[in-house]
């Protein structure tokens, strides 16, 4: 134990005063005359030993009262280390969480303002010559530069809410590297945050034993937030005049049931479906809104509610495209052209053309959404090498083999795509037994789930398919013996649909069956180039576009922003890093002179879930993972007092004052008792 003011200890000589008084304060005996000696029986005399005990107790209480009063002025403390931190040069890292969750209300104001005030107190607890590193979620250039006391306070006062959310482990790693780049030996790191469970991954911290870390929680007084979590469509395809079903997931992160909350859906800035909803406390609900697509092209959508105090998650943006045409390229004989034309000529959205393989211009392949191979006996190496990059870049391929095929040719082609190949022809009669009703191809085919015996296609002969492990596959139609009839493979960024039967009526009645038209129709619809419905700000999102040699410069635009994103070009196409420089949630477009696509950006919803680590949780994580960190509980003291206790030591002067007053009270009580 040490003393902040040891010179006050000389006052302990004052203890001699009550001792001297005790030694020289002898009580004088007095003569008392009694008229009757019998009265002496009623006088209660104290023994000499009992009298001495009472005086000693009073003396002891006086000595202890004086001693603890002197110790209070001397201010005893137990130091953390042999050398106080105030006597050393320091480099101090400070992290202030400025994510959206810090908009919540604290004791007096928003959590961010409270965190800023606490951070300034941290800075003021150090010397003016110490150096500081200030970090926020934005990770701006120059954040790892050493700052002076005044520069740090100026930057803290300028902080504002950011749309970026970071994990605590990422913050710690960045600060650790910045702090260790300094030559100053004494290193500290302070983390001021609400420590949401979604981002406070303290278990992933790789702690540095040379850095003393301090966790300072900023707690919200009221945990309440209603927000839109996500949205999605029932159908993966979008057509003009199509009825859309938009599903919206809403979460209520509060202790109150909410009723008749307004909800608005805007498509291209027009309010199309106003409605309201009710949601229970700490629950979620999914609302389905129905509307009709009325225009072609880009559809900018947003869903909106009203909630306080966190408002950044009250709007959810999405964007999709309605194609004016879907390009389908048929490669095969003229034998079944009438059936194929009858399917794709019924809708103006389809642009279907068919070529004999000997007359094909291979450049048409990369301009297509779907390539349909039918009735081919062999697949040439030139055709194989043209189809491979087309599929890898997101194109779709549908294969109906001929009645007689060159097995080696098909095996080489399908193996190139990492797809199962044909092994032999099975001429035993068979029948389709199972339909994969969960597949998007059959989304709108059946009004309800079919029951009982269905009239399904009958097969006279079909090709057996190898069973080796290949690309991800999904059986769409399955025969009675369990072998595949129609299978989907995911290859690269595209899909391959492989049929085990030809279109020849001698092989099966599939071409005349009721399933034939919706199957081929929906495969073509699913071949549209679909882009993500929305992106999350802060994620490393990319989209693939066709490479444009004439004008490869793309722009991301809205009414106030125009930036040029980073692009990586390949032989098959271009990858656009669409999250470059986007900080504001909104609808945007990605465009150049020939292409225009819709984009939508939303803030990270991890900040919307107001669930925090408790002090017990943090202590358990620190102890179980041996993290060199200390939890500072501000509910019992100010931040300056807590830091003083941590950096200088635990002070006991308050306890000394309490004990001095206690022994003075004991002395008073003893004197009153003795008089009685």
**Strand order in space, largest sheet:** 16-15-17-18-25-24-23-20-21
**What's the main sheet like?**
9 strands, mixed
> What is the residue-averaged pLDDT?
85
Strand content: 25-35%
β-strand number? 35
Poorly predicted ranges: 82-86
What is the CA-atom radius of gyration, in angstroms?
A: 40 Å
Global geometry: elongated
Helix content: 10-25%
What is the first-to-last residue Cα distance? 43 Å
Helical run tally: 12
Question: What class do helices, strands and sheet pairing give?
Answer: alpha/beta
Detailed description of the structure:
With 676 residues, the protein is α/β, with parallel strands linked by helices. It is built from twelve helices and 35 strands. A hairpin with a 4-residue loop joins strand 30 (566-569) and strand 31. The model is unreliable at 82-86 (pLDDT under 50).
Q: Which descriptors would you attach to this protein?
A:
nine-stranded mixed β-sheet, five-stranded parallel β-sheet, 12 helices, elongated
In short:
This protein is 23% helix and 29% strand.
Write the layout of secondary structure elements.
Blueprint: E1 2-3, H1 16-24, H2 48-74, E2 76-79, E3 90-96, H3 111-124, E4 131-135, H4 149-158, H5 168-180, E5 186-193, E6 211-217, E7 225-233, E8 243-253, E9 258-267, E10 270-271, E11 275-279, E12 283-292, E13 297-304, E14 315-322, E15 326-332, H6 337-344, E16 350-355, E17 370-376, H7 381-392, E18 396-401, H8 407-416, E19 422-426, E20 430-435, E21 458-459, E22 462-465, E23 473-479, E24 484-491, E25 494-499, H9 516-525, E26 535-536, E27 542-545, E28 555-557, E29 562-563, E30 566-569, E31 574-577, E32 586-591, E33 596-602, H10 615-624, E34 629-631, H11 639-647, E35 649-651, H12 653-675
Helix pairs in contact: 1-2, 2-12, 3-4
